[in-house]
UniProtKB/TrEMBL annotation:
Signal peptide: none annotated. This is Uncharacterized protein. GO terms for molecular function: magnesium ion binding; phosphatase activity. GO terms for cellular component: cytosol. It comes from Lentzea xinjiangensis.
Length: 268
């Protein structure tokens, strides 16, 4: 890990915002005992900020708050309930799907409802560790979904950065487009929704300033949080754009990088 860039008069840390996959968790979605013990020991709020839905986060048996679906949902980990959700109107979902089908060959679409993922047959962006229900037609997906908190687009053999550029140009005026590293997989949220926007609202409600926040992340969907937080760390395994955006780099997630940094900063 290279030398940290921290101001001499850095204020007390009151909140730690951390991504999950590729950041807090080891490969395979494992929360190590070292990392769990460190999170329990720090004298600060810990907020998970992830593209994952609440049903995934709750299985980690953490307490506190999780910002899920790239900022579209806020989940109380202790009470196990959604306290806030931003959804995509169905007319916007249909418009975005039609527009992407015109500019991305063989694109497949799916929707995250907050309870499950429903997809058309052309969507093959999830492996066995991300269960979803495939319906015969995209219209059936729209009919069955009670709400859409996130739209997912997948194209075979596509590079996610390039795909995000194409999608942002085509539909960026209607939605927020990002990705978290999956091959050819895009995550599409309501306009103005991001991890940072939801975190800022949560911090304001708690009387916490951005200079009192430390953030950790590894993928482009973390850039908004890393840019907003007073102190930001890119993981050693992070996407090149994330490493370029952060002065501070933590060891990789395979080495419990978040725990290593927190142990040092909090004197654990």
């Amino acid at each position: 890990m290279r030398k940290e860039v921290l101001p001499d008069n850095r204020p007390m840390t009151r909140l730690i915002a951390t991504d999950l996959d590729g950041t807090l968790l080891r490969p395979g979605g494992v929360l190590s005992e070292r990392t769990r013990a460190t999170l329990d020991a720090v004298d600060a709020d810990v907020v998970v900020v992830t593209a994952r839905p609440p049903r995934f986060v709750q299985d980690l048996e953490l307490t506190g708050t999780a910002i899920c679906s790239n900022g579209a949902m806020v989940y109380d980990l202790t009470a196990r309930e959604v306290t806030h959700a931003r959804t995509l109107p169905f007319d916007v979902v249909r418009k975005v799907c039609e527009a992407l089908a015109e500019v991305i060959p063989n694109v497949g679409m799916a929707v995250e409802t907050g309870l499950e993922v429903l997809s058309e047959p052309a969507f093959r962006g999830f492996g066995p560790n991300n269960p979803h229900r495939t319906l015969e037609l995209l219209d059936h997906v729209f009919d069955e979904a009670h709400q859409v908190v996130q739209l997912l687009a997948w194209a075979p053999d596509a590079e996610s950065d390039h795909l995000m550029e194409i999608a942002s140009e085509a539909v960026g005026q209607h939605v927020t487009v990002t990705h978290s590293g999956g091959l050819g997989l895009l995550e599409i949220s309501p306009p103005g929704v991001s991890k940072a926007a939801t975190l800022e609202t949560l911090c304001r409600a708690r009387g916490i300033g951005q200079e009192q926040v430390i953030a950790f992340g590894d993928m482009p969907n973390d850039l908004s949080v890393l840019g907003w937080a007073g102190t930001a760390y890119a993981m050693g395994n992070a996407h090149p754009l994330v490493k370029q955006a952060c002065a501070n780099h933590a060891p990789p997630n395979t080495e419990d990088g978040v725990a290593q940094v927190l142990e040092r900063l909090f004197g654990l």
